[in-house]
Design brief:
CATH architecture of one domain: Sandwich
Number of helices: 4
Number of strands: 8
Structural class: alpha+beta
Helix content: 10-25%
CATH class of one domain: Mainly Beta
CATH topology of one domain: Immunoglobulin-like
């Protein structure tokens, strides 16, 4: 009984080996046809062409129909803005000529002189509007006195002879601080005085001064319209 079992087992094993051998297929080997480079020797060496890296990277752009190609347009030139020059209204001037003043024996003396006249060299004194200065030169031919009012823009120029050290400003050009508020502000409030010595070799400045005077507007009447 045992011998039959062994023979059956051997037969079954052979059977499976035959079936396995029949179903086994050879593995496919993938072959790649590699082209063979055939080198031909000639008498002339081929020229080496170096490709343009720019053209190789970015091909030339051809605009399509109906599209707008980018072109460089000239920048528009902007015209500078014309700024009109400011028009300056000339200040009124009382006189454009030099007024020569001759000494008047009846003219009051503009004394006492200001206490600081030795320092300032010029000053204003007297009950009237009197301009005084020091005689600093020995060869002067005369003196020129310039009186300017800042607010009204008036300018008065006077010339006196040598050895004269005072000028009583004529009433028409003098400030009138007690007349009205308008007159006090126009002349008395702000003015400047300059005294120049006229010498043979030119002009020499004696000195100049500017004054700002207070107007008591509450005590002054207004100008009659």
């Amino acid at each position: 009984m045992k011998k039959k079992n062994y023979s059956v087992t051997i037969l079954l094993g052979l059977f499976f080996l035959v079936i396995t051998a029949c179903h086994a297929q050879p593995e496919e080997t993938s072959t790649t046809n590699t082209p063979t480079l055939i080198a031909q020797t000639t008498g002339v060496l081929p020229s080496v062409v170096t490709p343009d890296p720019i053209s190789a990277i970015s091909p030339a752009f051809t605009p399509l129909p109906g599209t707008i190609s980018a072109t460089t347009l000239p920048s528009p030139t902007r015209k500078p803005r014309e700024t009109p020059e400011p028009t300056r209204t000339p200040k009124p001037t009382a006189t454009a000529v030099v007024i020569v003043v001759t000494p008047n024996p009846d003219e009051p003396d503009c004394r006492p002189l200001p206490e600081d006249i030795q320092t300032t060299k010029i000053g204003i004194t007297g009950p009237s509007f009197c301009i005084v200065w020091l005689d600093l030169f020995n060869d002067e031919l005369g003196y020129r006195v310039i009186l300017e009012y800042d607010r009204s823009g008036e300018r008065f120029t006077y010339e006196v002879g040598p050895d004269i050290t005072q000028l009583l400003v004529p009433e028409a050009a003098a400030p009138r601080p007690d007349e009205s508020q308008e007159q006090c502000m126009l002349r008395y409030n702000s003015f400047a005085v300059t005294v120049i010595a006229l010498r043979p070799d030119g002009e020499s400045l004696v000195n100049g001064m500017a004054a700002n005077m207070e107007c008591d507007l509450r005590a002054l009447p207004t100008a009659t319209p």
